[in-house]
Batch of 2 targets.
Target 1
Amino acid sequence: MYRDEFLNKKISDRIANQSVRSLRILESMMDFSSNDYLGIATQNLLSDRELDFLWNAGAKGSRLLSGNYPLIETVEKQIALFHSADAGLIFNAGYDANIGLLASVPQKGDTILYDQLSHASLRDGIRLSFAQSFSFLHNNLEDLERLLKKATGNIFIVTESVFSMDGDMIDLPLMVELAEKYQAHIIVDEAHATGIIGEKGEGLVQSKGYQQKIFARIHTFGKALGCHGAIVLGSTLLRNYLVNYARPFIYSTALPPSSIAAVQKSYALFPTFTEQRNHLNNLIQYFQSANCGFQILPSITPIQIVLIPGNEAVRNIATALQAEKFDIRAILYPTVPKNTERLRITLHAFNTMKELTVLLALLNQLSK
Ligand SMILES: Cc1ncc(COP(=O)(O)O)c(C=O)c1O
């Protein structure tokens, strides 16, 4: 018998406030929930018979020991070139990249200022750092400036370009202006912008031409790219620093060649997906201009938010939508602040206008 009864105390707290999480598999549903925005994973566009020999082989070690290999170095260079960065270092996941970067670069005496809606991986990295840290109000540059005035040491501003839980974007030019005024370094997590924002899906920073003004960009491979892993882009010195100090990079087995080959293939594919991005934009505009009966947040990205306050209320609506074969998930408190519980609907290049019309009608019906 496992002696694990003590774990029940915190699980019961979750049950009491209706926020207990469990793993589920929803099959044969219309996907309005995954991050596979372009359909690369769903449509199995990365399978490759020529690369079969790579499948199932591990990297055999961490990159600094026996796990480095030519393909991973080549792909790092190719991705850095695509994103107009001097260098890039691949991590096993976006989570690892954010932890590795933030826990190792800012030092004691430095200051990290981060958007209050920053992803858990950014916040966990910040918690591991010895620098002091303060959050600023979501997307609020006045609040950021208030904190910049008091900041000491090297200053880091941490933000997402497209926010994962709200779907909105930062005002990058104004943020860069502010950072320059206070000589701060900007770190941008482009997880939900990669593949989506910009003519080729190059991300927000590059689409605005600010790549030389950003200290570090994180592009993840698990969302629109349909793969797994992430890269930190920046200077060659930053890459060298991370190789020496980023613990998730140093103390973990490298991604296998099969994963890296898939990432390479996805980078050859997604920039050409102009039609898919156009269709996605049409779906986004349609969703934003329609009346679904509930309050929605403004968003020009595939992440669309329908606010339904209360864990029970939002869960009931999600269950009703799932009964109609729509894979849509409720985002509950404490993942989001109380009274901002929501449906997080993600739109994909493979969703049809017809599906969206039915979904909007269903939401309208459920709102009454
Ligand atoms: C903004 C953001 N950053 C980082 C991550 C973590 O990326 P990964 O799933 O590759 O660990 C996520 C994924 O949920 C995310 O939404």
Target 2
Amino acid sequence: MSAPALRVTNITKRFGGLAAISDVTYEVLDGSLTALIGPNGAGKTTLFNLITNLFTPTEGEIYFYGKSLNGLSPRQIAGLGLIRTFQTARVFPGMTVLENVLVGAHRRVRSHTLKQMLWQASARHEERELTARADGFLEITNLLKFRDVAATDLPMGGQKLLEVIRALMTRPRLLLLDEPAAGLNDSETSELASLLRAVRNSGVTVMVVEHNMSLVMGVADQVMVLDAGCLVASGSPQEIRKNARVIEAYVGQEAAV
Ligand SMILES: Nc1ncnc2c1ncn2[C@@H]1O[C@H](COP(=O)(O)OP(=O)(O)OP(=O)(O)O)[C@@H](O)[C@H]1O
Ligand SMILES: [Mg+2]
């Protein structure tokens, strides 16, 4: 059997006295879609920051397809195909929707040379292929009609979808999405669900932090539940739905479960 996409072993992250992540051990199988859920402050974003080495673990080790990520810079980790998005959408101002998406295809390029690079790329054969891929993602998310408008003119939900698409254009091996549905309206959320299904079907391994239970339960193979830094449950959506500790973790939360 091949190595799991991600193996997190006994990982702990302390900030002063607070253990934001406490002795978490977990495996993400190649090609699966894992939803990471838990109340505010549970440590979900911290876990992503640890996986991408924005934070150094206090204890524990993280392996990406069997390779330890210990000591690698966030840039080196991205270079391996481990790509993440952030909780708040960040689009490049002064560029169109399509240009923002194509940036993802040039992930090693510095931002001040992007415009120039994109112009040069347009002369190349691969440009057509990249644009076709970008258009495919824009179509799934109903953004194709906006492809030539300034990205900053998109509604917030569209900007968040754009960030996911840009990440997909890097052809990630493992994609970490931090609350991609936050701020999305109902139709944008269902467009995101379609995009996630398309991504999973294309074989990309995904971890997604999400509060929206109907979205999570509809697309995830596995669910991991964090509460106060601890992994309190994991399993299939069906198993998680019945799990008492999950319901407990959400007591007092907005009707999330
Ligand atoms: N850089 C930091 N320095 C100190 N404490 C931090 C830092 N980052 C996160 N924390 C703390 O770690 C805990 C987990 O935070 P984290 O942002 O990972 O939660 P989360 O599950 O992503 O929450 P949310 O659903 O609100 O996004 C919180 O108590 C937070 O205050
Ligand atoms: Mg968070």
